[in-house]
């Protein structure tokens, strides 16, 4: 049922965040939220979609949690039940950190320094965004089983250590900011380029990431990386309308109609990046935003300053050591110096990124541009094996068909 699917995309994080705050139990919160959505599938076709789906789901999940706690009949469960019955969400106190937004509070809770940064980010994406373990594993380029174990260990550690559901005092926020930024970045990425499913763009996720990034910049106005991350999101999201055609098919950057880009969003993104740079505390999100600005401000694809982009990716590579960044640099080098130069760099990453679909897609494109059609088809087919997003799959299949009949 589409209304339930839409409510899941829009409300999952809020429902779970509210239940974690009121129950203190991460597993119970997720399970009762799932029960509420299952109940919606049963009742909404009969009773109609409620005027406020989020409130209906939160109330249903909360009642389910109270029932579960009552049946548990333990002292701890009775205490949590009493707390839930006496709580009034409308008058919830403001945390010392100044954050009243349940989702941002949840991010700061997940990003506790007692957990590894990877565990912090993975747990937040699972709990906040409702991303599947498979989707999160793809974002980290690790097997699903590995990610599942990390999530279980993170929840266990939060429970056993009694880590509270709250934002720390303002003076402790900086120790969590790197993980919080990583969460928002990956949340936006999953919305900007969906890793699976029928849609290339998940507007709900990217819009929520931007909203949370705005909230974070209000909370920490002197943090340049927070401002730069918001700038990066805005500069990317400005191109959303041009990234798919009327049939929902993928449109590459060089082929996009730039008249469809949101100029107001680009101007805001540039202004926020400029303010971040004036802080003179460079960081990876500032570099990425500068790269995005190169793309967003080029009047035509031919005007893109690929030499500058390649240099910026080189700087970013030194900052992060990420092989994915090195792949992006290789593509920029190919655009600046020719496909042969780029292919040599891509091939150097072949072993490290063999399970990454974009390496094979990039390699296939460079081989195509060099006229090596048979090798290009092989690389495109390898990318197809790794692709779970339908728009990307259709694009790759078209490329294979074109080269096979050439």
Topology record:
Layout: H1 2-23, H2 26-47, H3 53-72, H4 75-86, H5 102-110, H6 117-129, H7 133-140, H8 144-161, H9 174-192, E1 196-197, H10 203-219, H11 224-237, H12 263-277, H13 284-297, H14 306-320, H15 323-337, H16 339-348, H17 357-369, H18 373-386, E2 388-389, H19 390-404
Parallel strand pairs: 1-2
In what order do the strands lie side by side in the largest sheet? 1-2
Spell out the helices and strands N to C.
HHHHHHHHHEHHHHHHHHHEH
Q: What is the CA-CA span between the terminal residues? A: 44 Å
Continuous helix count: 19
Return residue spans where pLDDT drops below 50 for at least 5 consecutive residues: 90-96
What average pLDDT do the residues reach? 86
Strand content: under 5%
State the helicity in percent bands.
over 70%
Radius of gyration: 23 Å
| Biggest sheet layout | 2 strands, parallel
Note the overall shape: globular
The strand count comes to: 2
Structural class: mainly alpha
Describe the 3D structure.
The protein is mainly alpha-helical. The chain has helices spanning about 1-25, 25-45, 55-70, 75-85, 100-110, 115-130, 135-140, 145-160, 175-190, 205-220, 225-235, 265-275, 285-295, 305-320, 325-335, 340-350, 355-370, 375-385, 390-405, and strands spanning about 195, 390. A two-stranded parallel ribbon has the order 1-2. α7 packs across α8. The model is unreliable at about 90-95 (pLDDT under 50).
